[in-house]
Specification:
about 375 residues; alpha/beta; Aminopeptidase; Alpha-Beta Plaits; 2 domains; 16 strands; about 35% helix; about 25% strand
Length: about 375
């Protein structure tokens, strides 16, 4: 590994930033204290511009290099998760029911480390735009930042992001050209029949057989409609019906999630879902309510930018796997990659509890590696001013 010496020199400072953020988690768009802490550090670094209140509590900062050149966006998410922490570390969450269980505290610390180095050295042309984003876990703060015009407002030409991975060796990187993470779409189905006494089902329109048959039928969308060369997941996650052992219920509720890697398969799965739900409702004499909430689109890396990012990762990290199979989790960095060319990478932090686990904790040892990745990416893509 070739971590930048200056960044390695303030590794303890980065750990302090990260642990402060970890102890003070905030949810969704309301990352006000985290944003204020980020702004405090950026001002101390001497960045050229700071813009607050973007996507409610997001922060955008600009560092100018030596003369004209490219403009690159670097993104870190800031929000935590609504869950109880069980790490037992001294800097554990001070707020019940909130914790940094996905590494966003570390992502923010890594980008702050890169900002400190880049503001000191200015060993590049053009401008760096730092995107500190709220609400990755819900709502899609990345989408809101794009909709509020950050790409055009700050002239961003390419955009890059990192996410920690507790199932990879410390300092390794993974990425891929093309799809890296899935789109996520959620569905909610309510079947209404006619309730009554369980001893006289002929007087009822029972939603339970309809719901049971529908759950089985939904599994055929992937197994019988999606090509074996494509990836898709449809998972029913809830079924609710009934209140007592001797009552045929009035209604049944089903919900779940669909994950796909291309817009074509995404459209196919939704179309087949609607057809099966409507057909079952009609066949069983049910009234129907169906809601499909389209969530984050697929996270799709641009080939040239993914190759550049992988080459930088090889300079600063351990092993780099640049053709990994796409996974079915989702990320709202996808909106930024729809708006501009760029790439997203995973950085390994060593084995431990997985993300979204109450004992997860970001590994501070990898922060200098991530910060060095961002810094070298800028110095390589932008080059020195002429």
């Amino acid at each position: 590994m070739a971590v930048i010496n200056r960044i390695a020199g303030f590794a303890d400072e980065m750990a302090g930033w990260r642990q402060h953020i970890h102890a003070n988690p905030e949810l969704g768009l309301e990352c006000y204290q985290t944003a204020a802490f980020v702004v405090e550090q950026l001002r101390a670094f001497g960045v050229d511009e700071i813009h607050e209140g973007i996507a409610t509590s997001g922060v955008v900062a600009v560092i100018k290099g030596q003369g004209d050149g490219p403009v690159t966006g670097l993104r870190a998410d800031m929000d935590a998760l609504p869950m109880q922490e069980a790490t037992g570390v001294p800097y554990a969450s001070m707020h019940d029911g909130r914790m940094h269980a996905c590494g966003h505290d570390g992502h923010t610390a890594m980008l702050l480390g890169a900002a400190k180095y880049l503001a000191e050295t200015r060993n590049f042309s053009g401008r760096v735009v730092l995107l500190f984003q709220p609400a990755e876990e819900v709502i899609g703060g990345g989408r809101i930042m794009v909709e509020e015009g950050v790409m055009d407002r700050f002239g961003i030409e390419e955009v890059y992001g990192l996410h920690t991975n507790p199932h990879m060796a410390e300092g390794d990187f993974e990425t891929s050209e093309g799809p890296l993470m899935a789109a996520v779409d959620d569905f909610y189905i309510r079947l209404r029949g006619k309730g009554g006494h369980a001893a006289y089902p002929e007087d009822c329109i029972d939603p339970i057989p309809a719901a049971s048959a529908l759950v089985g039928a939904l599994q055929t969308i992937v197994s019988r409609n999606v090509s074996t060369h494509d990836n898709a997941v449809l998972t029913v996650t809830q079924i609710h019906a009934g209140t007592a052992i001797n009552i045929v219920p009035e209604q049944a509720f089903i919900c779940g999630t669909m994950r796909t890697l291309t817009e074509e398969v995404r459209a196919l799965t939704e179309s087949r879902l609607r057809a099966l739900v409507e057909g079952h409702a009609q066949a069983y004499g049910m009234e129907l309510e169906l809601q499909v909430d389209r969530g984050y689109p697929p996270t799709v890396n641009h080939p040239a930018q993914a190759r550049l990012a992988a080459s930088i990762a090889r300079e600063v990290g351990g092993d780099v796997r640049d053709n990994v199979r796409a996974e079915m989790g989702a990320e709202d960095f996808s909106y930024m990659l729809e708006a501009r060319p760029g790439a997203y990478l995973f950085i390994g932090q060593g084995d431990g509890p997985g993300v979204h686990h109450p004992k997860f904790d970001f590994n501070d040892e990898i922060a200098p590696i991530g910060a060095s990745f961002f810094a070298r990416l800028i110095e390589t893509r932008h080059g020195r001013a002429r």
